[in-house]
Structures are given as C-alpha cells and as structure tokens.
Amino acid sequence: MLRAAGSAKTIAVRGGYAGILGVTMIGVSFAINSGPAPDATSEQLIEFGRAHFSTIMWGAWLQAVGPGLIIVFALSVVYLAGAMQSLMGWLTMFGAGVLMMVSLTEVVFYIAALNSNYAPMAIVSNDVAHAVQHLYFIVAAPALFLPLGAVLLGSPVLPRAFGFLAMALGAAFFLLGISSLTMLTLSAAVTSLAAVQAFWWLAAAITLKRRGQKMVEPEGLQCLPVR
Fold first, then answer.
1. Any alpha helices (H) in the chain, and if so which ranges?
2. Which of 11, 59, 109, 175 fits 125 for a cystine, CB–CB 3.0-4.6 Å?
3. CA–CA separation, 206 vs 211, rounded Å?
4. How far is 149 from 182, CA to CA, in rounded Å?
C-alpha cells in the first residue's frame, strides 16, 4: 500500500521542526530557571519566587509547550510508519498522553509555588513537584520510548539505531524509576538521564527533517511504503 508523498514530505519536515523546537524550548526552560536550593525553607522559597517570578513563569510556559511539540514529532513518526492503527502505535499515543499529563502537572505546581497568599503553599507545591517528577521515570518515559522504539524498528522512517536506542532509554528510565523509590527527591545522578534523552529527541528530529527535505517529488508525487 502506498501513501502520497506530498503529504509525507510535509509531515516529515514539520514534524522534525516541531521536535527540534520542542527540545530547544525545554533546554531554555531549564537554563533560565535553575530552581531554588533543595533544602530551602518556606520563607526562602517565597523570596526566590518573588525574585525570579518572570523567569519561573516563562520557564513554566516553555516546559509546558516544549513537550507538546516533541509529542507532535513522535506522532509524526508513528503516522509516517503507517502504525497509527497498530498496537505499538496506540501504545505510543498512550505514552504521549501520560508524559503530557506528568509534564503539565509538574508545571502547575511550579506556578502554584509562586502564590504567597497562603504561607505553606511554596514549600508544599515544591514538594509535590518533586513527587510528580518520579512519575516521569516510573511510567511516563518508559510508556513513550518503548512502543515508539518498537515502531521505529518496524519501519524505515528513521535508521534502526534510533529504535534500539529508544528501547534502551525506555528500559533505563524504567529501572531508574524503580531505584528512585528509595528517595523523596530525585538525585542529580537520576535526573541527568533526562538530559541524555534530549539528545535522542534532537538527533531523531533533525534526521527526520533532513530525510523529509530530501524526498523527491517527480510530477508532484512521492510515495512511501506503509506498514
């Protein structure tokens, strides 16, 4: 079965750009908002929020929108692979929904921590945000990377190496999610993997964009295999 490639070319290029922009936005969000000290008191958190209100709000916006653009890229890959109606395609969409839920919930508590009308709000929101971060490792990242990796291994959309790396990242996140059950706040050694996976998204998005740009459309038509 064949799909008209005028559509596929557009999806590949735009999906690649969405992934690149999404990773960039998340990177900027962490760069402009390093966060308070882990052992900060409620008063220190309130003062930190007042001093960095603008950067926290912009960082929250970037961290909310950035993952959404990465999901656009991931679902573009699933669509181009012809896997939208497959089990792995559905599981990728499920994982995308879980990841967005976790990301947006974390952002909500970043913003809630800025509300100084209720004195304990800053420290409570900060603690809840740290608790939510566990979900990224326990379920969100594995639920997205594992089925997406399976989709990539079953299609020519991206080099197979991306599929194997996605499966490895999903497994690593799952194992770290288990190991993190002994701590309330994730250590730097655990959260560093979140930075590592950003390189996978960026490399995969750039590759998809370049492949899309190289698609030839004789007589305005190009075809891709659908599986």
1. 5-32, 42-51, 53-80, 87-112, 121-135, 141-153, 160-179, 188-213
2. 109
3. 9
4. 29
- d(CA 122, CA 117) in angstroms, rounded, equals 10
User: Which token pair is 89?
Assistant: 């395609």
Cβ pair 124, 152 in contact under 8 A: no
Per-residue pLDDT of 119-174, as tens digits, reads 788 888 888 988 999 999 999 999 999 999 999 999 999 999 999 999 999 999 99
**Span between the terminal Cα atoms of the chain, in Å:** 8
* pLDDT digits 0-9 by tens, 19-32: 999 999 999 998 89
**Closest to 81 (Cα-Cα) out of 89, 73, 71:** 89
Phi and psi angles of residue 2, each rounded to the nearest 5 degrees, phi first:
-120, 150
Are the beta carbons of 17 and 199 closer than 8 angstroms? no
* Dist CA 110 CA 144 (whole Å): 24
Q: Mark 8-40 as b/e (b = at least 16 C-beta within 10 Å).
A: bbebbbbbbbbbbbbbbbbeebeeebeebeeeb
